[in-house]
Design goal:
The chain is mainly alpha-helical. The chain is built from five helices and no strands. It is flat.
Length: about 170
């Protein structure tokens, strides 16, 4: 299972890099969109492989839960990750200059709340996938490791929430 997650992550970055090369080097924007559109396909394949692995009788494990986290994060943060990769590609290979001023004050608070929103969406997607997997597998298998992963992720989300809200309540000065 871990090998599938690693393979999905590698495939994710390969299609993003191919998309950026098509966009900026080969000047083929339609082909770049095709590669970027493959990212959710990779996620879908990982969902299918994870569910089939469980259905085949493999005991549910933390790695199955990590697959759900990966998928939730990939879907919720996908556009943000591609935008970040696009900027880095332009800086490294096209020598474009991006001068981003560090966010401060309420602008930083708003940004942190937006990122928290994405984290919540990722959590909901991951939890939904874990629940769907447990229903798909049925009551013949112990799926408690899947929900153990969600408990830990819930703690991480609570910490992220506290930190994000702190940026709104106590805006960062320069």
């Amino acid at each position: 299972m871990i090998a599938w997650i690693i393979t999905a992550e590698i495939a994710f970055w390969i299609v993003i890099i191919l998309g950026l090369i098509c966009r900026y080097v080969l000047k083929m924007p339609k082909l770049s969109i095709f590669f970027f559109a493959l990212t959710p396909v990779i996620d879908l394949l990982l969902v299918i492989l994870t569910a089939l692995d469980l259905k085949a009788g493999t005991s549910a494990s933390i790695s199955h839960g990590i697959a759900a986290i990966y998928i939730g994060v990939s879907i919720a943060y996908g556009k943000t990750i591609i935008t970040w990769a696009d900027e880095k590609f332009q800086q490294c290979f096209l020598k474009s200059v991006y001068k981003k001023e560090p966010l401060t004050g309420m602008a930083k608070g708003k940004h942190e709340m937006k990122m928290l929103g994405q984290h919540i969406v990722a959590f909901i997607i991951g939890a939904g996938l874990l629940y769907a997997m447990s229903v798909f597998v049925g009551s013949n298998s112990d799926t408690s490791p899947l929900f153990q992963v969600m408990k830990v992720w819930g703690i991480v989300l609570a910490i992220d929430t506290a930190i994000s809200i702190s940026y709104v309540l106590f805006p960062k000065k320069k």
